[in-house]
Fold these 4 entries.
Entry 1:
Amino acid sequence: MMSLTAYASGDVAGAVTSTWNTARSQIVSVVNNVVFPCLDVILAVLLF
């Protein structure tokens, strides 16, 4: 097997943190607008 080692230059931790902070707001939005309403519907169907 051949493998290629990649070396990153610059502030990798800063880039990852910045990307996560941007994605976090989108994840929260999806969970609030999609996941919770779906769970509400499922629970309503099962309980009533």
Entry 2:
Amino acid sequence: MAAAATDNQANFAWTSESNQNDLSAQADELSSAMSELEFRAELLSSLEVNTADFQAEAANCEGAKAAIKNSFSAAKAAIDLAIAVPVVGLALTHTKNAFDQVEMIMQDGLKVADAASMITIKLSFTALKGILSSLALGNLKSVVVPVLDTLNSIESSIIDLSKCAMGTTKIVIDQSHCSSLADLYRQVIAESIKINPALSLPTDASEDLKRLAAGSLSVLDLMDKSSIATTNDGLLASRPIFASDVLDQYRSELLRVATTDDIKDYAISALGTSIGVSNALESCLRVAADPIGAVDELNDELEAQAYYDDDEDEDDEDEDDDEDEVEEVNAAEVQSEKTEEVVNQPVAAA
């Protein structure tokens, strides 16, 4: 990590005029694009797939298996190749651990390919896409986007294989299907704690940086020890408290004040992965707790969000109108003053 401790703004120059606030703002935008609400919407949408019109054929099902394995191997190879690149290698190392864990879940599930294993694969796949989506900024964007494209290309194969396993029955999840995500959650949070910059900041680091790094470590520690049970049995019997929204704020602020690449890498990759897994697990547990009620709850939240967005748009329009009115008044006052000056000018003697 020490070798990356020199400031290299060019690494994160995703626009020609990039600055710290730009990077932070883009991180905010990507995080909101795959929030817990978005995870839940995608999860419920995938569970609503109608399988009644699907004629399961052995060739199609085996073909779907092969497509998933081959494409996932290609995506993993792209990540492994990028790890060797000095500029992005450190940032991707943390995320690769999560990627490898999801690959293990998929490989185990494909061996069985029954209804339960296919639900687990779908959940893990959705989580991985969300994690990678939140990392597509700075110097990681050119690496992450092609991997996402590869993963998106096999989504239809996963849906087909799910239909093969489910037949014409409705896809329903319960809390036990969230176990693999819970394992991934605990692993990712523990790793993020181990490499948190608060543990190795130099004494001359800014007070803002010290405060934000320590704050992110405190939130991670809470997520590790207090918010979730240490075993899946304990998890499924409890109602964990998730803190990804708070951690996301620390991530954004760390990107804003960081002066070294290693801290930016940590905020983008380690915290981004932690936030993504947390949102995925939370959405899984919320849907599993009440699969029927979850649809109504989601619709209510989406309607509320749409109303809020419309209200914000109206406020923006009102502000624009007010600004236009002020400009018109100012222009009128200026014109009035000019007219008055002309009128009051002394008439030259004949």
Entry 3:
Amino acid sequence: MTTDPTPESARALLDRHGLPEDVIDGVLCLHAQELAALQRLRMDELDLTGQKARFVGRIVDLIDPTRTAAVPVAAPPTTEQTALRDCIRRALCEAAGFGFAWGTDMLEPDEYGEVADAVLAVLPAPADRAAEARVRALHQEYAFGGDPQVYCAHCNQISGGWIPWPCPTVQALAAEAPHAETPDAEGLPARLEAALTERFTALGNPFSEMRRQEQGPDGWPASRPVGPHQVAEVLRELLAAAPAVVAQPGKEN
């Protein structure tokens, strides 16, 4: 009997019994498929719907070797995208009257995440300013002695030749700059409102049916409907301050 607290893997167990590699692979694949099938039966019993069903379903698909290849591997979001997404989630939370619960365990870990993704889909793609800054830091102008011509120090070092300044890399960055600018924010609420309406309708939860609980002018509890337009207005205000949020993603607001 072993005293090693580390559990033996299934592959190691089968290998210890002298089974061929192809047999081991087949056994493990069948076991994974059976496990995934049991998990799907359990999902049906729990009658999972919406975001939870999709989330659990993706995890089960990762177990099933027949479906793993079909699971898309998304590129990890940048720090800026994550901070902006959290900013949008917070705006949705505050607009619904639950701002007091932000940052607590009263909300799901990714509350309003699906709607935030829908909003990000209608926003212009953010430029990778950190990567651009690194490139610009490398490509600097350099004057050689009394030569009136200015060269790129980095390109000269890499190519061993004399590349005039501004070099092709810097010119390409300058050409892309207009496309990276954020469009005028005046039409942003309308686009956000349309995206929110479409998303909540698709989820079977019309946002116009949500109500915000607050204190009325007479001091008694009151409520008012909160629709996509109101949320879009809150988002516009927060997104106007988004550069500060993005620049300091770890800072509390």
Entry 4:
Amino acid sequence: MKNQSQSPETPLLPFSDFQKIAAKVLSVSKEESDEQMQRFQAENPKSKAKKSKVVKSKKAT
């Protein structure tokens, strides 16, 4: 319980440090998401075709 009452008083990170951490996290997550997309497309080749058909039909209407 004491830890909860003290938590608002904990000092925040300097903004520059926060930016560095955020940049690392974003770059890692982007690489992982790219890998997941490639894996998903390799496992489900039809899914991409379905999406492109939907987009075309929307443009036509």
